[in-house]
Amino acid sequence: MRNKKMRRLLIAMVCGLLIAAAAITMVACDPKDTDTINVYSREEGSGTRSAFIELTGVEEDDKDRTYDKATILDGTNKVLTAVAGDKRGIGYVSYGSLNDKVKAISVDGVAPSVDAIKSGDYKLSRPFNIAYKQATVNGNALAADFLNFLFSSEAQEVIAEENYITDDAVEHKPYAKSQGIEAAESITVGGSSSVSPLMEKLIATYETLSGVSDKIELMTSDSTSGMNNAISGTYDIGMASREVKDSEIDAGLTAQVIAIDGIAVIVNPENAVSALTGEQIKNIFIGAVTSWKDIA
């Protein structure tokens, strides 16, 4: 009787060990417990995506080769939030939008900074453009006055304070409010989600200096929508975080650069990687490299 009990006890112990071993094996093989790189990219129409894929070589022969398993997000803040919550995530955002929830990595040995972007040592940079139809400005004194403000010395101070790069080659004069702005006038400014946070600060400063309040509506979408809506007249002024295309100029838009911005490649702060080459970044974002273990 005792032998039977001992045999049952041994069998139970062996089964327990086998179950524990199986559980350990399952945990070790859990896809969530791997070094897989989780790629986060922006939506089509995003000026940040357009500039990023061009600058990194993800775009080749006018073909966007973004990794088909990348998670596509429609906005700067969504990319920041995703990477901040994913230890294996990588994405890209406007340099001026960086926060302490993510880590910006060096690219080809150069860390993103205002000085590095301004000098050209940091290669991932692009213009912040505004675009409008001249007829819109001619017919709206508020639009004309706001455009004058955007290129004033006061606006340049805001741009520098927000960690964007000003154009030092142009002389920027102090803002002086134009005459003839009618109480009924209002304008809509819209487009790039990367330009939008800066534009919000600029609008607030303009309202303080001009005394004009609640007359400028800011709409956040993407660069292509910003340009298309400026062409159609839905927006009085469109915003783009990329170069304005020849086709958009041909459609009647006048474009002006208000600032230069870097594109920061970001990872989770707990990620040991702090530097990548341009080639490595390209290979990650086209899906040629899919594991952090393959990053030397």
From TrEMBL:
InterPro entries per the UniProt record, alphabetical: PBP_domain, Phosphate_ABC_transporter
Main location: membrane
Signal sequence interval, chain numbering: 1-28
Keyword annotations of the record: Lipoprotein, Palmitate, Phosphate transport, Signal, Transport
UniProt cross-references to Gene3D superfamilies, sorted A to Z: Periplasmic binding protein-like II
SUPFAM superfamilies linked: Periplasmic binding protein-like II
Domain of life: Bacteria
Any Pfam family hit: PBP_like_2
Localization per record: Cell membrane
Domain PBP: 36-154, 183-294
Record GO biological process: phosphate ion transport
Family per similarity comment: Belongs to the PstS family.
PANTHER family the UniProt entry points to: PERIPLASMIC PHOSPHATE BINDING COMPONENT OF PHOSPHATE ABC TRANSPORTER, PHOSPHATE-BINDING PROTEIN PSTS
Quaternary state and interactors: The complex is composed of two ATP-binding proteins (PstB), two transmembrane proteins (PstC and PstA) and a solute-binding protein (PstS).
Full protein name: Substrate-binding domain-containing protein
